[in-house]
Amino acid sequence: MSGRGVWLRARGRLRRFPTLLAGCGEQAAAYGRCVAAAAAGTTELRRDACLEEFRALQDCFARAAKATPK
């Protein structure tokens, strides 16, 4: 069994990523702002500090991936 098919599918998904990201710009910006604010100064970034924003971005990606033809 060859692993070539796996890499071709993965490469295809990665090629679609910029398009998916473009459709989720608002959520990506909100997540980025949250991470930047949570890690500002000497504050250590903590797990789940931006969980709400991350989930919104994750949901947007999932919706966009389902709507995008393979």
Characterization of the model:
The protein is built from 3 helices and no strands. Helices cover 73% and strands 0% of the residues.
* Terminal-residue CA separation: 23 Å
- The helix fraction, in percent, is over 70%
Structural class by SSE content: mainly alpha
| Order of H and E elements | HHH
DSSP strand tally: 0
The main pleated sheet reads as:
none
Please, how many helices? 3
Kindly estimate the percentage of residues that lie in beta strands according to DSSP: under 5%
Mean pLDDT across all amino acids: 85
Brief write-up:
The protein is mostly helical and 70 residues long. It contains three helices and no strands. It has helices at 4-23, 25-38, 51-67.
Features of this protein?
70 residues, mainly alpha
Ordered list of secondary-structure elements with their pairings:
Blueprint: H1 4-23, H2 25-38, H3 51-67
Helix pairs in contact: 1-3, 2-3
